[in-house]
Write the C-alpha cells for this entry.
Amino acid sequence: MRTMVDVNIPEKPECAAELEKQGLSELVKALHEHTDPQVRQYAAYLLGQAKNPRAIQPLIESLADFDKSVREQATIALSAIGKAAIGSLAEAMKDPKWETRYRAAEALGKIADEKAVQPLISGLKDSRDHVRYMAAKGLHELGDTDAVEPLIILLKDENTYVRLMAVHALSAMGSKKGKAAVFKALESEQDEKVKAAMTAALQ
C-alpha cells in the first residue's frame, strides 16, 4: 500500500536534526549564508513551518536565491505563513529582479486571499512574460471578478502561455464580459492551443 508523501517537504540535508533545533535567527543565517543549497532550502522549509512573521522578509530575499529549489521553497514557506506575508509580497512585486516578482506572484496566488488581488492585477502589466503568466494564474485561483478587465487585455499578449492562462482565468470567473472578449479574440487567434482553450471556454 502506497503512503501519501507531502511534496512540500524537501529532502533533508545531513545537518537537518541540528537545523530543527535552531531558533529563527540561526535559521535565517543558514538561509542566507550557507553554501549548500540543500541546507538553505531546508532552512526555508523550517521557517515556513514556524509561521513566524519575522521570517517573512528573509524569505522574500530568498525568492532571488541563485538556486531554483531554494526559490521554490521560499515561495511555499511564504504561502504557508499566509495573510501576514501579503504586504511584503505586494512590495516584492515591484522588485527589479523578475525572479523575485515571479515567485511573489506565485506565493500570492497560493495564499488565495482577497488582499492578494490588487498586487496580482498589477503583475498582469509586468514587462516580463513569466510574471504576467504567474499573476494570471494566481487570479485564476482567486476567481475575483475585479480582474476581468485587466485579463481581457492579456488576450492580445505576445506570449502564447500568457494568453492561454488569461483564457483559463476568464473562463473560471464566468463573467459575461470576459466570455464576450474571448469570443472576439478567437477570431484573430493563431495558436491552436489557445484557440482550443477559447473554444472550450465558450461552451
In short: The two ends are 41 Å apart (CA to CA). DSSP finds 13 helices and no strands in the chain. Confidence is low (pLDDT under 50) at residues 1-6.
